[in-house]
Amino acid sequence: MTTDPTTAPTTDAATTLANTRASEQKATDALLVLLDEERARLVAEIERIPLALQAQRLVADGWSVIEVVEHVARVDRGVAKLLATARAGELRAAKEEAAAKAASILAAPLPAIIVSKIRDRSMRLEAPERVRPTGTLSPDGAMGLLVDARAALVEAYRAAPADVLDQSVWSHPYFGPLTLRAWVELSAHHDARHAAQLHELATIAAAHR
Length: 209
Fold this sequence. Notes:
Helix content: 55-70%
Mean pLDDT: 87
Strand content: under 5%
Number of strands: 2
Number of helices: 7
Radius of gyration: 20 Å
């Protein structure tokens, strides 16, 4: 049996391909760890606040605990949908935008200045209507949505090929065009932002006891 030299990878090409795949897998694994760590911190802050206070708006111009949880879940669900849509080859607008704005695209790992802006609670970011909480959920309903949305995001992330994660792009309302892998990373930092918010609410809730 002979091998066609025009189709068989050279040793150098095979090594490069193997290294690329190893690098992609490392990036995927690191991001999954970050997602898990930030979600654990978020849940820990939720659990500090008594159920009896989770539906109350403890800050006059802020959300209740349940509303924060619902918002985080809705963001996760939106990112999962982006990943599934891109994997199906239906994110045409994103690919066109990527070509048009290649110089301004943010990829994972996100720059430290962007990470800081996402996590910094002193920088007020108004949530778009599509991810604002409805305020209709119970504590159990909100937590169920949070768990299901994150499971959907992780499943979609694991299933997406590297070219989809790193070449498909969608714009964030504040940070501009991001690759889809960057969107997944943003979800982890978004958890951190709202864990800080919940920490503030937990401190206030403690004063109500």
